[in-house]
C-alpha cells in the first residue's frame, strides 16, 4: 500500500535519523527532570530499563510486518477484522497523535518565549511551528527524511559536544546513591516510562516504504538503541552537574546544562547552539507527528493521499495546544500522556501479533 501516488521508498539511514529525531523530541522538554524526580540519582538507568521493555514490543511489530510483507498495521487490521475496525483504529490513532503533537507545540512555544522570544505572543510561535510542520510534511516522508538527514549531523554534533563539555565540569559523587530509591523502585520506574519510545509506532504505519524487511528491522532496533543511549547520557550529565534533589527542580534541563559551559577565556555561553539543536529536532519531530496523524487518517479511511488531511489536522493540533491554561498544566498533562499513550501504541501491535499467531492461517500478502 502506497502512502500517496508520489511517495518513494525510504532509505535505511534516513529512516533511522527520522525515527530517532521523532523519539528524542521530548528529551529537550522537561522529561529529564521528570526522570530525575521519579528515579532519583538512578534516573540514568530508566531509559535502559524502558528500552529492554520496548524491545519485545518491537519484535511483535517486526514479525507482523514480516508476515504481511511490510503492510501497514492499519491495513493488516482491515484484513483481519474488517473495514469498519480499520476506520475506527485509524480515527483513534489520529486523535491520539493530534493531541500528542498539540501538547508538544505548546511546550515548544513555552520554551521559546521563556528563553529567546519573551515579547513574542505564544500564539505566533505555535502557529508558526504548525505551518512549518505542514510545509515539511507535505511532500511526503521521503523528502522529510532527507531534510532530517541534512540537519541531523550538525544537530547531533552540537548536542554531543555541549553534553561532553558540561559533563567534564560535573562531579561523579553527585551520582550516589547509585540505585536512587532502590533497585526495585528503579525497575518499576523504567517500566512506567516505556513511553519514552512510544514514537516507534511510526514504523507500523510506514512499513510499506521499506524495500527490505532487513532494513525495517535494522531501523527499528538501531533507533531504539541510539535514543536509549542519548537519554542515558543526558541523565548522567544532568546529575553530574545538579545534585539531587536540585535536578528535579530544573525547568528545561538541557538548556540549563548548556548555560553551565564555561571554559574560561576560550568558550562560554553555548546555550544558543543547544537551542539550535533543540529547535531543529523539535521542528522535525512536529512535522513527523503531523505526517503520522495524516497517514493514520489516510490508511484508516483508505483514502488515496494523505496531503488533504495535513492542514485540518494541524489546525486541530493548534487548538489542542491552547487547551492548557498554563505552562504547568501543559507539562503535567504531557507527562500524563506519556504514561498512557504507550497502552494503545504498544498494545495494538502486540494484540495483532497474538491474533495472527493464534488465529490467522492465510499466508497471502496484502495487495
From TrEMBL:
Residue spans making up a coiled coil are: none
One Pfam family it belongs to: Spore_permease
What are the protein's UniProt keywords?
Germination, Membrane, Transmembrane, Transmembrane helix, Transport
- Per the UniProt record, which residue ranges are transmembrane? 9-29, 41-61, 81-102, 122-141, 148-170, 190-210, 222-242, 273-294, 306-324, 336-360
A single BP term in Gene Ontology? spore germination
Query: What are the GO cellular component annotations?
Result: membrane
* Family note: Belongs to the amino acid-polyamine-organocation (APC) superfamily. Spore germination protein (SGP) (TC 2.A.3.9) family.
Q: What is this protein called?
A: GerAB/ArcD/ProY family transporter
Q: To which species is this protein native?
A: Heliobacterium mobile (Heliobacillus mobilis)
Amino acid at each position: 500500500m502506497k502512502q500517496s501516488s508520489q511517495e518513494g521508498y525510504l532509505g535505511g539511514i534516513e529512516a533511522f535519523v527520522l525515527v530517532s529525531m521523532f523519539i528524542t523530541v521530548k528529551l529537550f522538554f522537561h522529561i529529564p527532570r521528570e526522570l530525575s524526580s521519579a528515579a532519583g540519582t538512578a534516573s540514568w538507568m530508566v531509559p535502559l530499563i524502558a528500552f529492554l521493555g520496548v524491545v519485545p514490543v518491537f519484535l511483535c511489530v517486526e514479525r507482523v510486518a514480516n508476515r504481511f510483507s511490510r503492510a501497514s498495521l492499519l491495513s493488516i487490521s482491515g484484513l483481519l477484522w474488517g473495514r469498519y475496525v480499520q476506520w475506527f483504529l485509524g480515527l483513534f490513532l489520529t486523535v491520539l497523535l493530534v493531541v500528542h503533537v498539540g501538547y508538544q507545540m505548546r511546550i515548544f512555544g513555552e520554551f521559546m518565549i521563556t528563553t529567546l522570544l519573551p515579547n513574542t505572543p505564544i500564539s505566533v510561535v505555535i502557529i508558526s511551528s504548525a505551518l512549518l510542520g505542514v510545509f515539511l510534511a507535505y511532500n511526503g516522508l521521503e523528502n522529510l527524511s532527507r531534510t532530517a538527514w541534512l540537519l541531523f549531523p550538525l544537530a547531533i554534533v552540537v548536542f554531543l559536544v555541549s553534553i561532553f563539555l558540561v559533563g567534564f565540569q560535573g562531579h561523579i559523587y553527585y551520582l550516589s546513591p547509585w540505585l536512587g530509591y532502590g533497585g526495585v523502585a528503579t525497575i518499576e520506574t523504567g517500566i512506567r516510562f516505556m513511553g519514552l519510545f512510544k514514537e516507534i509506532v511510526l514504523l507500523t504505519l510506514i512499513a510499506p516504504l521499506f524495500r527490505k524487511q532487513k532494513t525495517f528491522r535494522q531501523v527499528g532496533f538501531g533507533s531504539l538503541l541510539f535514543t536509549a543511549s542519548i537519554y542515558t547520557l543526558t541523565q548522567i550529565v544532568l546529575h553530574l552537574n545538579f545534585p539531587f534533589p536540585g535536578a528535579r527542580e530544573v525547568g528545561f534541563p538541557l538548556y540549563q546544562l548548556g548555560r553551565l559551559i564555561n571554559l574560561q577565556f576560550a568558550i562560554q555561553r553555548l546555550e544558543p547552539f543547544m537551542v539550535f539543536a533543540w529547535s531543529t529536532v523539535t521542528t522535525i519531530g512536529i512535522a513527523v507527528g503531523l505526517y503520522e496523524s495524516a497517514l493514520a487518517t489516510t490508511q484508516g479511511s483508505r483514502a488515496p493521499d494523505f496531503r488533504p488531511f495535513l492542514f485540518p489536522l494541524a489546525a486541530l493540533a493548534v487548538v489542542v495546544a491552547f487547551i492548557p491554561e498554563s505552562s504547568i498544566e501543559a507539562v503535567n498533562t504531557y507527562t500524563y500522556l506519556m504514561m498512557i499513550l504507550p497502552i494503545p501504541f504498544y498494545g495494538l501491535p502486540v494484540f495483532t501479533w497474538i491474533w495472527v499467531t493464534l488465529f490467522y492461517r492465510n499466508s497471502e500478502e496484502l495487495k
